[in-house]
Automatic annotation (TrEMBL):
Gene3D superfamilies: Tetratricopeptide repeat domain. It comes from Vagococcus coleopterorum. Keywords: TPR repeat. Signal peptide: none annotated. The keyword Isomerase does not apply. It comes from the Bacteria. This is Tetratricopeptide repeat protein.
Length: 412
């Protein structure tokens, strides 16, 4: 056996000392083809330093070997040595058999550096050399997907679906994902179902379930999400949509159990705390709803949304002073909802002048919210400002033309 083979055997047996000895012997005695194979296997196993040593040694004897330059570039990229990676890749001439591969590695490098437009140029240059190569279409489609250019990605994936692809490569999942991102859920569904049938993964189950939710097929979504939760309870993303679907189907006890399980898996999930609070409020469990929100507030740096939700909860519970105190942390907020809640709380305390001031401050950002317009109009009417109230009611009726209460008020 060669020293390269003996090194791999030692690694497989977990004998790192013997592996190092055989590695050093291989560098001195093994033939270039054996060293090349060893370097590739070590690189694939994550032994980048040893692989780099082999490739650098071989490069001394074969300075123009494109495969060596590409391997060294890939190692440099893994080590965040971008200048070295560029140097290796740019040393590969256009007439080299590995030039197209070097363009793909360059495309990956530019994408890592946050310059996807240059990545696109490199892939398109490669396509000019090999216009019918499906791997290049796949690389371009993947790039477009990461750039949120979903229509272009979908078009390429659909083209690839009719092509001869390498064994084990399927684009059904990618087609479905791209179409979903375009909002074409009906069209995405058969591709996602086929991909899930071909090979079931956590991601595919989740993506298919979310698509069913978009199509208002909650029961199918629930079935898939429960399956995913059973297969992988640590898949954190499963709990929020599953609980939401169960609530939509009025399966409240099951939803509460899912929320509790989700918070056990991830006690820092703000979305789950908010959902738990909303559900408790809906069930009339005000103390529980408040507790969930206060827990969320302790976890957040940006507490604005949770503070607003808590203030509104206190408002509904007619704890007006506490509602105002809760919003004191948001004195400089640009959120119209803050001023609306303050207006309602002051109105509840019969501090009408302050309430009117806050309604005025809320109006510029909430003038397209029909609930706000109606509430503000009713406040103004109570304050004897019927003319101004009627202006707001007319704005409101352009959004809610069938509100008989407001129509009657306008006729008075």
């Amino acid at each position: 056996m060669t020293h390269s083979e003996l090194m791999l055997e030692a690694l497989s047996a977990g004998d790192l000392v013997e592996a190092q000895l055989e590695f050093e012997a291989a560098l001195k005695e093994d033939q270039p083809d054996m060293l090349m194979a060893l370097g590739g296997q070590l690189m694939g196993a994550g032994f980048l330093e040893e692989a780099q040593t082999i490739f650098e040694k071989l490069l001394e004897s074969f300075p123009n070997e494109g495969s060596l330059l590409i391997s060294l570039a890939e190692i440099a990229i893994e080590n965040d040595q971008t200048d070295e990676a560029f140097g290796y890749l740019q040393a590969i001439p256009k007439d080299d058999n590995y030039y197209v591969e070097s363009l793909l590695v360059l495309a990956d490098l530019y994408q890592v550096l946050g310059v996807p437009e240059v990545s696109e140029k490199k892939i398109k240059e490669a396509k000019q050399i090999l216009p019918e190569e499906p791997v290049l279409d796949l690389a371009l489609a993947e790039l477009y997907f990461t750039m949120d250019r979903f229509q272009e990605a979908a078009d390429l994936y659909l083209k690839l679906n009719q092509s001869e692809l390498p064994e084990g490569v399927s684009v059904d999942d990618r087609i479905g994902s791209a179409l979903s991102m375009l909002g074409e859920f009906e069209e995405a569904l058969p591709y996602l179902e086929k991909a899930n049938t071909e090979e079931q993964t956590d991601h595919r189950l989740f993506q298919l379930a979310i698509t069913y939710i978009q199509l208002k097929e909650n029961e199918k979504a629930i079935q898939l999400l429960e399956q995913l939760k059973t297969l992988n309870p640590s898949y954190e993303g499963v709990y929020l949509p599953l609980a939401s679907c169960l609530l939509d189907e009025d399966r409240n006890p099951e939803a509460e159990a899912v929320i509790a399980e989700g918070l056990t898996q991830n006690p820092y999930s703000l979305d789950l705390y908010h959902l738990a609070s909303d559900n408790a409020f809906r069930l009339g469990k005000i103390p529980d709803a408040e507790e969930y929100l206060r827990k969320a507030i302790t976890l957040e740096e940006d507490k604005e949304i949770s503070l607003i939700k808590l203030a509104n909860l206190l408002l509904v519970d007619e704890r007006f002073e506490e509602s105002i105190e809760t919003l004191s942390e948001l004195a400089n907020s640009s959120q119209g909802q803050v001023y609306w809640t303050l207006a309602q709380a002051h109105n509840g305390l019969e501090k009408y002048a302050e309430a009117g001031k806050y309604y005025e401050e809320a109006y510029p950002t909430l003038k397209d919210d029909p609930d706000f317009l109606k509430d503000y109009g009713l406040f103004l009417r109570e304050e004897g400002q019927s003319e101004k109230a009627n202006v707001l009611f007319k704005e409101y009726l352009t959004m809610e033309p069938n509100d008989l209460e407001v129509l009657d008020l306008l006729e008075d």
